[in-house]
Design a protein that fits this description.
With 141 residues, the chain is an alpha+beta fold. Strand 3 and strand 4 form a beta hairpin. The longest helix is centred in the last third of the chain and has 21 residues. The chain has six helices and five strands, in the order ααββαβββααα. The termini are far apart. Helices cover 48% and strands 19% of the residues. A five-stranded mixed sheet has the order 1-2-5-4-3. The radius of gyration is 16 Å and the shape is globular.
Amino acid sequence: MSGMRDAHREIVPCRDKVRMITRHLDSYKAEDIVTIPLQGKSILADYMVIASGNNARHVKALADKLIRRFKGKTPSPIAIEGMARGDWVLLDMGDIIVHLFKPEVRLFYRLEKLWMSPAHRMAQNAQTKATTTAEQKQKPL
C-alpha cells in the first residue's frame, strides 16, 4: 500500500525546489538567505540553503513551515535535527540540506565560509546589496 502512495508523490526537481525553499523562507521573514551549490564539492547533497531566524522560536517556525510545505515532495523523508532547541535546525531533504540558525549561532559556525568559493561569496554579496538597494528605493519616505 505504501508503494502505491509513493507512486503518487509529486517529486519536485532540485533547482525548482531550491527556489521554492528560498521564496518560502523569505515569505516567513527569514534573514540572510544563502544558496550554495554543492555539485563537485560533496556527495551529501546538490545544494545547501542557509538562513537565519530572529530567535529560537522563529527558527523552529521556519523549519516547521518548510517541513509541512515539502512533506512528500522530497526523494526520501525529511531528516530533522535540532528542532528541540531551535539554535540550529538542519533539514536534510535528500538533494538539499537546509540550515536554519539563530544569528549568533550562524556567526559562530560560519558555514558559508566553509562551503562557498570566494567568487560565489562575492556574487551572493552583490545580489544581497542589489536587493537591499531595490527594496530601499521602493519604501516611501
